[in-house]
Amino acid sequence: MNMRFTYEDAAFALNENDVEALGKVSEEVLRRVLAKEGRGSDFLGWVDLPGNVSDFDFGKIGKCVEHYSAKSDVVVVIGIGGSYLGARAVIEALQHAFAPYVKGKAPRVLYAGNNISEDYLHDLLEVLDGCDYSMIVISKSGTTTEPALAFRVIKDHCERKYGKEEAAGRIIAVTDGARGALKAMADKEHYPTFVIPDDVGGRYSVLTPVGLLPIAFAGFDIRELVRGARDMQNFVTENISFDKNPVLRYATVRNLLYKQGLKVELMASFEPQLFFFIEWYKQLFGESEGKENKGIFPAGAIFSTDLHSLGQYIQEGTRQLFETVIAVDNCHHKVEIPYDGEDLDNLNYLQKRSINEINQIARKGTCLAHVEGKVPNMRVTIPEINEYNLGQLIYFFEISCAVSGYLLDVNPFDQPGVEAYKKNMFKLLGKPGVE
Ligand code: PA5
After folding, report:
1. Which of 97, 234, 381, 396 is the most buried (most CB within 10 A)?
2. Fold of the CATH domain 4-35+225-415
3. Please, are residues 370 and 323 in contact by the beta-carbon 8 Å criterion?
4. Which tens digits make up the pLDDT trace of 122-138?
């Protein structure tokens, strides 16, 4: 397994007997997850997903990408929450940091339906005026307002641009196999449709067509992504002992820290490409754990950027945080510090060292400082950012989230609280039938 996990920099805050005792409970909890027992167990289909994606599935996605890419410069992915973040997390981690400005690397995937901003949609339509495009509309329920609104507007744009018949040939739906408005529209208009399995909830769906289709459109290797997840699945489901299993150690330690009053987990990375991966983590854990007046608040940061904003608070503010860092050993490229004859910036002592070497030292220095400031630190390390290692991280965090949610004694697979804002919005909008 490529991924490594350690909580050695959190050990100062833990009592070994407590770790051992809760570690044993975690082992039982993981067995329960794998046996698909426990709260919300109807939604545990994602547990077996990596091992279940077949050659047929890859082939179907591959053919679809080929067909639509031939007539499209870009693909608009319309979705929100779990129907959006997983794909974006992987795509943004893998694509060129300045993709729009590099010839031949322009992003092939654009996003809509993840907000209700009129200016955002206007600007997107302006881009779509000037290029050929197709769209993937993703919604498990098929009734979520944000993607439904964006789809209506973009479909209308597409029909005016290409005519109704050709527009229908530029739409792919990813939705439930039987229910929802999107399913009904797809059937009526004969859109090619990919089905989201009944037993996989939105935020656990990145390894279904919800994530795999957009990721493949962006040009990345979904077989490698799934292979990474599968290797993680095999490892963590075959080694159910606290000492060996990173899932059990991570879930146990974060729950022990929570019980001690550390209510916020700051997920941090020193690689800005992982910004959306951290957004995905925030949604996964936030919606899974934050209920019944319980749950660790999932926050995110990119260092060293945020050391110059949140850094002061982390070091000396209210002691309510622990930190988990996603560390990356190696970069794909090398940039060395050049020698400067005048050395007015006093940086010659760093000459010939690589930027990554300095970034790694910044990470170690930050960890030492935060531990000194009584912020327990855990670390998840991958050798480099690629599809295989992202697949490992995805499965690691998904199954950790399930175990952690059960340790908290909540149902990690529902999201009743998300309805509250919707009800108010519908009432205020005067939706027929809503009191
Ligand atoms: O994780 C979840 O279940 C949610 O975040 C959903 O993915 C999100 O609300 C979008 O739902 P839908 O796919 O039904 O449009």
Report:
1. 396
2. Rossmann fold (3.40.50)
3. yes
4. 999 999 999 999 999 99
